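INTERNAL AUDIT FORM
Audit reference: QA-55
Scope: verify that the stored structure record matches its stored sequence.
Auditor: D.O.
Record contents follow.
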Amino acid sequence: MAAAAAITGIGYARIARDSERSALDLAVEASRNAIADAGLASHDVDGLVTFPERTSPPTSFQGPPIESVQRALGLAGLAYWQSFGTGPGQFGAVLAAVHAAAAGAARHILAVRAHKRQERAYLPIRGDGGGLAFDEDAYTMPYGAAGGAARLAPWAARHMHEYGTTQEHLGSVVLTCRDYAARNPRAYWHEPLTMADYLSSPWVSTPFKRLDCDYPVEGAVALIISAAGGTAGLASRPAWVAAGAQAAGPGLSWTQWPDMTRMASWQVAERLWSRTHLRPADVDVAELYDGFSWLAICWLEDMRFVAKGEGGPFFAEGRARLDGDLPVCTDGGQLGMGRIHGFGKIAQAVLQLRGEAGPNQKPGATVALACAGGGPQCAALLLTGERT
């Protein structure tokens, strides 16, 4: 995989709480922006991947069907196309596109994630069968514990018990993300936030308060993944894929997990660092997944930037800010920019490597890490500004 593919275009659709636009409209806008950013035309795109796949009935996280995206963009003669499910950690579509480009299955692959604001209520099973739960949901959803906060809260609580992570440490992650978001014109949140504001916010699922949870928004992010041979003469500087990895840890279970102080991210780290000569100390910016505040702490530790138990103090001491040891979530992340899932992590990493991250730019950034997912569904991409 190393240097066999690159991210050559990125595009956003405006992030809003209520855009009054369809998911397809958002997908088309972001896709056209990504195609233009790469300096390509629609007829140059010969691959298309979307996340997540469409099911019937649709879930709250789904965007438009891949067929609708293809028709709306006029992408004729696709050599590679696929819609991907929820794992691994929302990077499944992008990792597959990287592999396809590296293998020569397509030259320029469009990857797009678009969605409307989630409004699903995690309630007990409905009597009409339309809310039938399966697998672990059958044991959690009837008790109102199927949402992400309820699933992940025991993991965060265990970490707090084992390593002394505090509520203020979680709040430091939130404040860090909000600080970056305040300087990012794309972000949803621009209002200042204090630790007192955080601590006074209502509980959702202990130890998570409302502000520990990512904010549901509407928007879209699109990427162009190009084979190495297709990068010459493009409009934007490529961000090269140095390594990628995904993992499910001991198994795809949120409840039957041997050590809830770490996620499948520890296995992602083992695989990722074994596939490159680069090391954690080489990373200039880390766009860690922060769907919930504790996720960023666990990713930081599991990816070997700090020892286990040191993630909370790292944020509290300001070491994740722009002038710190390792800037984290430099677009504001899910907690400040809004919930646009893992695609936003990759797009921001590319902007950093191009030197186009505006007020949140890390000077001279040459290596960027993007991570997505939590619990048993994790994945990461390591990107470089120069082909190595």
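Auditor finding: record pair retrieved intact. The CA atoms of residues 352 and 361 lie 6 Å apart.
Action required: none
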